[in-house]
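Example 3.2
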Amino acid sequence: MACSGAVRRASLVCAFAVLLVAGCSAAQGERVPTAAPEDVATATPSPTPERRPYTISFAGDVHFEGVLRGRLNSDPRTALGPIASVLRRSDLTVLNLETAITTGGSPAPGKQFTFRAPPAAFAALKAAGVDVVNMANNHGMDYMETGLQDTLAAIKQARFPVIGIGKDEAEAYRPFRATVKGNRVSVIGATQVLDSQFIQSWTATADKGGLASAKNEPRLIKAVRQARKSSDTVIVFLHWGTELVKCPTPVQRDLAAKLVDAGADVVVGSHAHILLGGGYSGQAYVQYGLGNFAFYNWGPDTGTTGVLTLKIEGREVLKDQWTPARINGGVPIPMTGTARQQALANYRALRGCTGLSAG
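Structure, written as tokens:
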């Protein structure tokens, strides 16, 4: 199966392995056709490109409820607003898609909040410069089994790279893979947050579809170790933490340490609806909470957001950069001037309770 997506710079060679579907995303901006997936034989193998530093951006929770549904219905190409110009700058961009992709199904019984969006959500993300999304979260199966089947069908139809969800355990824990400026990059998605009554029914198994659960630590660690064998950079994107708690919980810190020990170079995530701190844990980089991103709630704390961009070569995170933004009308608006400087200072201060260093 040939890749139809593209990436931001002519030097980026995409070699996506099959995760849930074969293929790569195509975001707006300066993109070029990409190479065939690694599992497809080619007549003349291309030489391995020289490894050079690349950039990867991460953002928090996105759904298309409330005011965002109106934006999506009006024009998916502009649904995420001006933050798209930030997302497109990096060689790769990853965020958390916190919704089922379905127009049917029944809401999960007993849940106060359930999210769903039509398949146009993938078109909106692609247009905004997003390359892959994590769907392992506490809303990924809000419309239960019917919603899951609709979601998997929409992923296949859109040919959009998704991690953390699948028709079985192998697919749910399978990483997104790409070769970026000569770096073999793997991104794994999983959720540490699941409502207790849905832990069993929403978790993917060998013969049942569902989500990649970080509650099954041995299975997640196995995925990291497997990726380590054939990757230059291993990244884990988690749904984790406690809502509205600004410091990482002992559970988060313990899991981050285990994943780093298993070979993860970057561990990032979201869920708390507010920002948490990030920094270095030895050579690895950990970010405990990216907050809301495109979301219908934008209070004083829940509306504070931004984009984390890392410059990486192989296993070394060379630089981190935070682009602060403020949610307004459901979409993140990049901050400027003195407000931006204050937001940067506030973000740096969050590192104080994480046990991480500035590098």
